[in-house]
Structure formats: C-alpha cells, structure tokens
Amino acid sequence: xxxxxxxxxxxxxxxxxxxxxxxxxxxxxxxxxxxxxxxxxxxxxxxxxxxxxxxxxxxxxxxxxxxxxxxxxxxxxxxxxxxxxxxxxxxxxxxxxxxxxxxxxxxxxxxxxxxxxxxxxxxxxxxxxxxxxxxxxxxxxxxxxxxxxxxxxxxxxxxxxxxxxxxxxxx
Length: 171
What we know:
Layout: E1 22-27, E2 32-37, E3 45-49, E4 56-60, E5 68-73, E6 78-83, E7 89-94, E8 102-107, E9 114-118, E10 122-127, E11 132-138, E12 145-150, E13 156-160, E14 165-169
Antiparallel strand pairs: 1-2, 2-3, 4-5, 5-6, 6-7, 8-9, 9-10, 10-11, 12-13, 13-14
C-alpha cells in the first residue's frame, strides 16, 4: 500500500477500492481545467476553460499549498497559477532563461523545487518567484521527452514518446 502523499493541499493517496480521491488536471482535447474521481474517470467536472491559446503542457502541485497548481504553456513559456476551486488562471509572467517551450513539469516533494522538461529535451529548474528557468543538463533519449514525475524520495523520472522508454533523471 502506498503511503499518502501530502503537501499539495489535497489527499493524493490512492488504494484500490478507495472512494473520493480527486484529481485536478488539464483536459487537452477540450482545453479545460477539470477534476474527477479516480474511481469514476468518465465523470470529469469542468472547472473552467483555460484562458490561454497555448495549451497547458505541464502542471505541478507545490508542497504546503492547498489551493493551486502551477501550469506552463508550451509555446510562450508563461507560468500560470491555477486555482483548484474556481479554475481561475493567473498569468504570473514569462520565464526567462528557458527554451522555446516546455513539455512537462513536476515538483520535488523533498525540496519544493520545480523541475521542467524543455521542448529541447533538457532539464530546467524553475523559480516561480523570480520567473526564471535554469538549464541543468540535457535529458538524452530519442528526443521527445514528454512527461516528468518526481517520487516521494525526490527521484526524477521521464518518459520519451519516440522510444517508449522511461528514464531516471539526474538533477
């Protein structure tokens, strides 16, 4: 049984048969912020449409926050604050120092540091307050890293869409 993860402000633990475990996310096809119960995936609730024409490609849930997630849009490097309850999307500004777009982001629950994959398949540290992206290194793989996750130990993992492989990522 996985231990409950805390810090995102919502209970993100899930065990088979549990009820009421909610997911907050982005519906790419309809460009909406949504939530849904993990036991009823077809019953997603639209919270609000996303206000930017550039799709929200990455979301991260900062630890010790209880009402919002960060989102990154692909082509303009804008960092957004997304309210869970209302779906309000606040443009925090354009990240300096990044590539021409990001494909995903995550937060390290052990440190609170935001990480993102650039459209150039490189790893970046994101400073949400300073609106900067700091290059940390190239990712490798076949050239289309599209997903980034961080486990409870602070280890980063990515997925490459071209070669269908998961990778362990050095920070």
